[in-house]
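Page 42, continued from yesterday. The earlier attempt failed because a stray header line got pasted into the input along with the sequence. Redoing it now with the clean sequence only.
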Amino acid sequence: MTASLNEKLRTVKWGKYKLGSLFEIDNTLSFNADVLVPGEKYDYVTRTSLNQGILQSTGFVNKENINPAGTWSLGLLQMDFFYRRKPWYAGQFMRKITPKITIPKGAILFVSTVLNMQKPILLSVLVRNVDSTFKNIEVYLPVSSEGNIDFNFMESFVAELEAERIAELEAERIAEQSAYLTVSGLDNYELSKEEERAITDYSSYVWKSFNLKDLYGKSTRGKRLKSEDRIPGTLPFVTAGEAEEGVSAFIGNDVEVFEKNTTTIDMFGSAKYRNYRYGGDDHVAIVHTENVPMKASIFVTSACHKAAHTGKFDYGHNFYAKDADALDIMLPSKDGKPDYQAMALLISAIQKLVIKDVVRYADRKVAGTKYVIGK
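This time it went through. C-alpha cells are written below.
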C-alpha cells in the first residue's frame, strides 16, 4: 500500500461496533452436491477456501434452499467470509451473514476485509460457539464527524486501492512485454510475411537425417571439476540436470571456456542451447554450432534433444561426446543441405507467438481485474 493510503488509515476516526449489531448470522439449508443439476444460474458454495468457496455452478434445485444475493457466506472450516453477488446454494457447515444496515457497493471489499480479520478468533472456538462468538466480536470501522459509519471513506479508500492495483498491473504488463522482446532481440511480436510463410509451409518441409559430427565436427567432452575445487567467479559451469538449465555454479577456475551459440547434451541426453560462454564438466558434451545462425542453432538444439533424450541414457548408461558424434538428427533441408533460413524463420515466429501469448495473458489479467472491481 502507498504512503498516502496508510496515512488515510492512520488519520481517519474509528468507532467500535459489535458484529451482532451490524449483521445477522444464520444457519443455511444444505444438501449434497450429488443432487445438483448442471447449469450456470446459481453457485453452490461450500466451506472450501478455493474459488471464493464456489464448488460449482448449478441449475435450479429448490427455491426454499436459495440464499439471497447481498450476503456473505462463512465456511466453518477455514472461517472464510465471501461476499455473494448473486443467489447461492450452500453445502454443509455453512453460515449466511446478512447485513442489518445498507452497505454501498463500493464499501463491500472494505467490509469483507474487516470480517476476514476475525478469522483467528472464530478458529479458536468450537463450531457450536461460532454464532455467539461472531455476534460479540467488536470491530473498528471508520466514522464520520457526525459519528456515523463513514462509508464514503471506505468507498474512496477502496477506489484508490483498486486504481493503484490496476496501475501496477499495467506497469507489469508493459515491463513483461519489453523484457521478453529485449531478451529475444526483437522490437515487436508481429509476424513478418516470411515468418507467416514459414509456419504455413511447415508441413511441406523436406526433412533429411544429418549426422552431428558431419555437420559440426567432433563434439567436446567437458572436464571434471569437483564441487570443493570450484572457485567462486562469474563463469557459468554446466553440469547434468534440469535445475537452472544445468548451471550448477559460477566459477573463477582456469577451465576450458566454450563459446556461446553452442549446444550442450548432458549424460541423460538432455540438450540445451547456450547463448553465453561457459565451462562444462565431464557429464556434458558440447556440440559446436558456433557458426550456425543463432535462431537456427536453437532449432538444432531441439532436434538434438528429440534424438538423444529418448530414455536410452541414464546413470548406468551415460551420454558422452562419442554418442553426440554418432547422433543423427532430422532437419529441414534444401538441395540436400540443412535449411538454416527456414529454421531461423520458424524459431523467430514461435518466439513472437509465445511473447504475444504472454502479452495477451497480461492484458487479460488487467481486464479481469477491471471487470471484478467494476472498472
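Notes: The chain has two domains: 3-149, 206-338.
Reminder to self: strip header lines before submitting.
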